[in-house]
Design goal:
By secondary structure, the chain is mainly α. Helices cover 51% and strands 0% of the residues. It contains six helices and no strands. It is globular and about 40 Å long. The chain starts with 25 loop residues before the first helix and ends with a helix.
Length: 143
Amino acid sequence: MGGMEYSLLTRDDRGAEFLEPDVMTPDQFFGLLRQRSWQDGERRLMAAVLQDGIENFQKYAFATDPLGREIFDVERSWVVARKDHSLFAFNTVCEVLDIDPDCLRTGLLRWVEQRKHEPVRLQARHLDDPRRRVEPAALAAVG
């Protein structure tokens, strides 16, 4: 990413923030999830909520269909709501997991900005889904 190194600074281990950008990329977040193992159910639930939100944010960021745009708008609103401190708000979930919400928020928004001018790539993963395959016998019956 342009040669810059990003930090995984949390609220508790700041000190050299003037040396490193205050950003956590989505890839760094998922790496952090793999490294940490939360023993209590509350943190596991919060991690699942955050993971689902970020996965949907990325998956639907460039959707062109109405449902995909709506899902992205909901996830983006959830990420950028700084004053919402309800139980499953982005800020609350991050804080329970000791992740700086502003750091992750900035990384997510930057991720979208960096990719929005890339050429649109068609995603054809569904073609490999066996549920989507049309069997030759079914084609013969139709034709």
